[in-house]
Amino acid sequence: MQVIADLRALWPLRDFRRLFSVRLVSQCADGMFQVGLATLFFFSPENASTAGGVAAAFAVLLLPFTIVGPWAGVLLDRWRRRQVLLVGNLVRVALTLTIALLMVTAGVGPAVYVLALVALSVNRFLLSALSASLPQVVGGPLLLTANSLVPTLGTAAAGVGGAVGFVLGWVLPAGRVRDASALVLAAATMAAASALAARLGRDRLGPDERSDAAELRAELGTLARGLVEGARYLVARGTPARALGMMAYTRFLYGVVFIASILISRNLLADPQDAREGLATFATVLAATAVGFAAAVVLTPTVSPRTGVHGWIVLCLSLGAVSQAVLAVTYERGPLLAAAAVLGLAAQGTKIAVDTIVQRDTADAYRGRAFALYDVLYNAAFVGAAALAATALPDTGWSRGVFAVLTAGYVVGAVTYGAAARRHPEATPVPGPAPATAPPSAS
């Protein structure tokens, strides 16, 4: 099996194994935590059964992430990334246990929502650190293999954690103790991820060069300039900027489909008054999507060497168009699950290719900022998708016209990106070596 062969190729790299274990355990905890939030925001009887309600909840959840992203980039280019993984998970432990305590003693209130948003923001910071660290432990041709394997298996680990959270929510009696139990288990898993990060050397994950305290304060004080310089660098390189643009575009399209899937699961394929049945239906949609993610792990390293990484993105966009064409015809369970699997393959395959392009064609001095911009675009695109879904989707979630437009959107993306890749297949050369620290205008 290709996955096993890829793992065998990467497994001799000791620090890869250690970083990989941190990702798996950390993202397993993410899954437990996020399923609890999804149940609270989207599948509790009193919450979010309309397109506007679901979209508003997503906007509340994701807008803070677009704020975290820029700060993450500056800090990840200055701080020891290993320390970020160690301390960041400990911060999540404290936040999660505080949320659990509040839910037992006071119930769900504004403080729970605020702390949940902070915890999710820390999580996005950790994911950026994991992505920026990978090229430090894997190099050469194995980087594409690692990018096809690691994020997708991390997503699978999040799925396992989500399944654990879902089972807890299903078997334990409803109430505050059930919600708190899932959070305590998530906190224990986060603590394990922090302990695993401690096995890596303090300097092993970079950055290659770090500023002193005064330089760091100056960099934080001119954050906007630093991001502008990072964006200019990516544009000058060519391929990373185009890849980030396509990632944001496909995330926007996927966001509309994701919100539609929640509404279809709750209001069309289940009794709208039975939130538990709606959650179970949506879980099957997520499971089908996870099958597509797994297929991307196998197919990306197999097919992309033949098509090229840019050609693989075009092929994935074409698969996305097929999935939406199916949904434009019907919302029945079987075709819906098949479309979810195909879209999962398309979305994850595109992500693997984009991650590889950004990592391969970006100097380490800018890599943290590149993934910070990635984070901002990723979440801002989903917020934009939520705004579109609130106005374009009916409360049932299914609209033939909307899915037809999404089909056309994937086709346009495939054609546009393919044409750009043919004109500029490689990163644009820039004069001189990339600086080891931020350029003068960013400090």
Structure description:
By secondary structure, this protein is mainly α. It contains 15 helices and no strands. The chain has a single domain (2-203, 234-424), classed as MFS general substrate transporter like domains (Growth Hormone, Chain: A, Up-down Bundle). The chain is globular, with a radius of gyration of 21 Å. Mean pLDDT is 83; it is low at 430-443.
CATH topology call: Growth Hormone, Chain: A
Task: Specify the CATH architecture.
Answer: Up-down Bundle
What's the CATH class label? Mainly Alpha
The residue-averaged pLDDT reads 83
Shape: globular
Annotation, overall tally of beta strands: 0
Number of helices: 15
Give the low-confidence spans. 430-443
Report the sheet-strand fraction: under 5%
How many domain units?
A: 1
Order of helices and strands: HHHHHHHHHHHHHHH
Tell me the structural class: mainly alpha
CATH superfamily: MFS general substrate transporter like domains
Q: Helix coverage percent of residues?
A: over 70%
How many strands, what sense, and barrel or not for the largest sheet? Answer: none
Subcellular location: Cell membrane
Biased composition (Pro residues): 428-443
Organism: Cellulomonas fulva
Domain Major facilitator superfamily (MFS) profile: 243-443
Keywords:
mainly alpha, globular, 15 helices, disordered C terminus, 81% helix, 443 residues, single chain, Growth Hormone, Chain: A
